[in-house]
Amino acid sequence: MATPLTDTAVGPSRAAHRADRWVTPTGAPTTARQRWVRRAPLLPALVFLIIVTQLPFVATLVISFLRWNALSPQTRGWAGIDNYKKVFTDSALRSSVLFTIVLTATVVIVSLALGLAIALLLDRTFFGRGLVRTLMITPFLIVPVAAALLFKHGIYNPSYGLLNGTLTWIWDLFGGTAPQPDWLTDHPKIMVEAQLIWQWTPFMMLILLAGLQSRDPEVMEAANVDGATAWQTFTHLTLPHMRQYLELGALLGTIFIIQNFDAVFVITSGGLGTANLPYTIYQTFFSAHDYGLASAQGVVVVVGSLIIATLALRTVSSLLREEST
Amino acid sequence: MTTAVADRPVAATTTRTRKRRTSGVLLGLLAWVIGVIFIIPVLWMVLTSFHSEADAGTNPPSINAPLTLDGYRDFFGSSTGTNPWPYLANSATASVSSTIIVLLLAFPAAYALSIRPVRKWSDVLFFFLSTKMLPLVAGLLPIYLFAQKVHMLDNIFLLIILYTTMNLPIAVWMLRSFLAEVPPAILEAAAIDGAGVVYTMRKIITPIAVPGIASTALICFIFSWNELLFARVLTGVTAQTAPVFLTSFVTSQGLFLAKVCAAATVVSIPVVVAGFAAQDKLVQGLSLGAVK
Amino acid sequence: MVRGAPKRILAMLAALTAAFALAACGGLGWAGGSGDRLRVLMVNNPQMVDLQKLASTFTQQTGIKVDFTVLPENDLRDKASQEFSSQAGQYDVATLSNFEIPFYSKNHWLVPMDDYIAKDAAFDQSDILKPIAKSLTGPDGKIYGEPFYGESSFLMYRKDVFAAKGLTVPDHPTWDQVADMAAKVDNAQPGMRGICLRGQPGWGQVLAPLTTVVNTFGGTWFDKDWKAQVTGPGFTAGTNFYINLVRSHGEIGAAQAGFTECLTDLEQGKAAMWYDATSAAGSLDGPDSPVAGKIGYVQGPVKETKSSGWLYAWSWAIEKASSKKDNAWKFISWASSKAYEDLVGSRLGWARVPAGKRASTYTNPDYLKVAQSFAAPTLTAIQAADPTSPGVQPRPTIGIQFVDIPEFTDFGTSASQAISSAIAGKISVQSALNQSQGLAEAVGKLYQK
Question: What superfamily in CATH does domain A90-316 come from?
Answer without folding.
Answer: MetI-like (1.10.3720.10)
